[in-house]
Amino acid sequence: MKNTLPVLLLALLACTPDKIRVQPNDVRTLQVRRYDGATRFCPGETIQVEMVANLKDGTVCSNLRTDTGCRKQKNAVLDPKSVALFAEPARWVSSTEFRLLTPPNPLATWKDGIELRGWIQSTGTKYPLRTEQVSRRLLPTYLCHSRVAQVFSDGQAYTATPGRRGPNLTVLVTALPSPYYPDAVLVKVVSGRQVRYYISQDAGNPVTVVSQGQRGGNGHDGDTGRRGADGQSATSDCSNGGDGGNGGDGGDGGPGAPGGPGGDVMVVFDKTNIAALERRVIVRSEGGPGGWGGRGGSGGSGGNGGSGRSGTNCSGSSGTAGTAGRSGADGPAGHHGPPGRVGQSLGVRDEMFAPELPTFKELEIRLGL
């Protein structure tokens, strides 16, 4: 055991990449990009940002990749202290892994996307030098808003508790062209104080919004059967021990609770373009699924046979152990909840989207509308 720790430490050190401090004068070209090579992002997505430096010695260095042969090393990355990276608008969630959380609200990146920029800077000097700044613009994509349904629902109810009603939703829909998606449609979902925005970027990718009842709680698990009593030990010479008692049967699992009903959904279309907007959003109200039935309890174990007692020229045998009890039956699943109501109406854009009007006006000016 004493020799294990040094071996583990050596293995960890062997896996840790060397951190190479590159000076600005050593850099021939520089680029910044998504680590996975993608040029677009989905609002709310977490991405890694890579800086790649082509050095004058012919080698390539990255802040994330260890196999580029930086400074002819087999396992090396740029020293994070040499790397200056910025993103606007976005928030760094890990400065050591260069992970960036893009804004979940699509309106924050609607007109300009996200700009990545950075440079290599010298370290250990009073007046650090730096390379010229490089930049790259990532454009938004909203296919992620269309590929899966946007479901509004609570988590599962407590054990044996029926699911609650799904949230009531107001879904507001209007056209909102952008520099990148001239046929885009904005879908605003209001649930109490909660507001979410989704984008249908073209007619082939509608947004699906669902109010779903809460899932019912699972049934109670059945009790474990009691253990059988142990057989009595022999009390006189040459006597056999008593048999152990049988274990009790396990209890049946309880039924799952029913799912909650779906909430009411009202979709409001901008009345200036109702025919085109109707195909861009799909709304549903669904009952929540019922909870799973509780698991049947295990049967109790049989009691041990009592020990026999030997005497002069004789021996007593032990009693037979009791049999285990039967397991209880699993409970039935709960029923699915009923759907809620779905309605439709028309509205005026400036009233439906009053808080968003400044953003709309800015986009319209930029697009010359």
Short note summarizing the structure:
The chain has 369 residues and is mainly beta. It contains 5 helices and 19 strands.
How many domains?
A: 2
* Span of the ends, CA to CA: 75 Å
Count of alpha and pi helical runs = 5
Proportion in helices:
under 10%
Q: Could you tell me the mean pLDDT? A: 91
Rg, Å, rounded: 34 Å
Gross morphology: flat
Structural class: mainly beta
- Please summarize the sheet with the most strands: 5 strands, antiparallel
* Count of distinct strands: 19
Percent in strands: 25-35%
Low-confidence stretches: 7-13
User: H/E series, N to C?
Assistant: HEEEEEEEEEEEHEEEEEEHEEHH
Task: Write structural notes for this entry.
The chain folds into two domains: 20-141, Immunoglobulin-like, CATH 2.60.40; 144-218 and 256-293 and 333-367, no CATH class. 10% of the residues lie in helices and 28% in strands. It is built from five helices and 19 strands. The chain has helices at 4-15, 143-147, 274-277, 349-352, 357-367, and strands at 18-20, 27-34, 40-41, 46-55, 60-62, 76-78, 83-88, 91-94, 99-101, 114-120, 134-140, 150-152, 169-175, 185-191, 194-200, 207-212, 265-270, 281-286, 342-347. Strands 2, 4, 5, 8 and 9 form a five-stranded antiparallel β-sheet that branches. The chain has a five-stranded mixed β-sheet with strand order 15-14-13-17-19. Strands 3-11-10-7 form a four-stranded mixed β-sheet, with no helix packed on it. Residues 7-13 have low confidence and may be disordered.
